Amino acid sequence: MSRTEKRAVVLTSGGLDSSTVLAIARNQGYELFAISFDYGQRHRFELDAARRVCEAAGVARHVVFELDLRAFGGSALTADVDVPKDRTGDEMDAGIPVTYVPARNTIFLSIALGWAETLGAFDVFIGVNAVDYSGYPDCREEFIDAYAKLANLATKSGVEGTGNWAIHTPLIAMTKAEIIRAGIELSVDYALTHSCYDPDETGRPCGRCDSCQLRLMGFSEAGLNDPLDYADPPRG
Predict the structure, then answer these.
(1) pTM score, two decimals?
(2) What CA–CA distance (Å, rounded) separates 23 from 190?
(3) CATH among 3.40.50.620, 3.40.630.30, 3.90.1150.10, 3.40.50.300 for 6-221
């Protein structure tokens, strides 16, 4: 790696937010190393989307890391628990939903951090958002700030001063509509992405889970059409 070359590890789920973050990091001049997680989630369509998005973004390397969080359960995404559907905005804001995967971003960031240290990549990007989100505690700025401090305390690079870790969250204060507009400006093809918690057997998004509703609301507020084909598209 040359002295002028910048490397970044980007957590990439195949969803709308992480695909936008990947484009933002690329636009900032980073050489991209993407990591996705096969963690026992309800379906693999998001991993297929992550591969498509990474190929389109021209990443240097895309790693799909396997770990099985079904061993712990505790979430509608990793256990035999129904995904909530048709919730109102007030219901989404009422508390942490059953789709929360315990400590997921802490686990994912830790694995990404280990890979980043071997790459000499001291910039890690993650698409957390504290505005249009479903109440997840590991999507808040306080969590990211604390994790950045941990990264600099818990790594050889941080202790020896050979690298200063930064956890980048360019979407954290943006609405979903603002995220979509930013992605469009950076030529993100949202037809490649997948956001649904509970798609049908062909991979079509349900249109009714929290993630689908937030995504659809974002496109509507941005004055754009979502390019995905929904199994149960909103009416009216």
Answers:
(1) 0.95
(2) 12
(3) 3.40.50.620
